[in-house]
């Protein structure tokens, strides 16, 4: 399974269609993938597992989100004031 995930990440070009977000506005999709990346990273790191599967979420949010948003959210996480549940 890890090979399949690594292959998908390697061949990744842009965010694929996500049925949870069918509309043109991808703001929610951006935010959800950002939160999913940090949740995945936290969950796998706490178990001492490899975080390679989490890279998928990171690539998706980096292709959808403006970097200014990501920088703001990173700052909020460091300060403990981020609105999402991670």
Produce the secondary structure layout.
Layout: H1 2-10, H2 27-46, H3 55-64, H4 67-79
Structure description:
The chain is mainly α and 86 residues long. It has a domain at 26-85: Cytochrome c oxidase, subunit VIb (Arc Repressor Mutant, subunit A). The chain is built from four helices and no strands. It has helices spanning 2-10, 27-46, 55-64, 67-79. The protein is globular, with a radius of gyration of 13 Å. The model has no long low-confidence stretch (mean pLDDT 86). It comes from Triplophysa tibetana.
The Cα radius of gyration reads: 13 Å
Mean pLDDT: 86
Largest sheet entry:
none
Class derived from helix and strand content:
mainly alpha
The name CATH uses for the topology of one domain is Arc Repressor Mutant, subunit A
The CATH class assignment of one domain is: Mainly Alpha
What does the overall shape look like? globular
Range of helix content: 55-70%
SSE order, one letter for each helix or strand: HHHH
Give the number of helices.
Answer: 4
Let me know the CATH homologous superfamily of one domain: Cytochrome c oxidase, subunit VIb
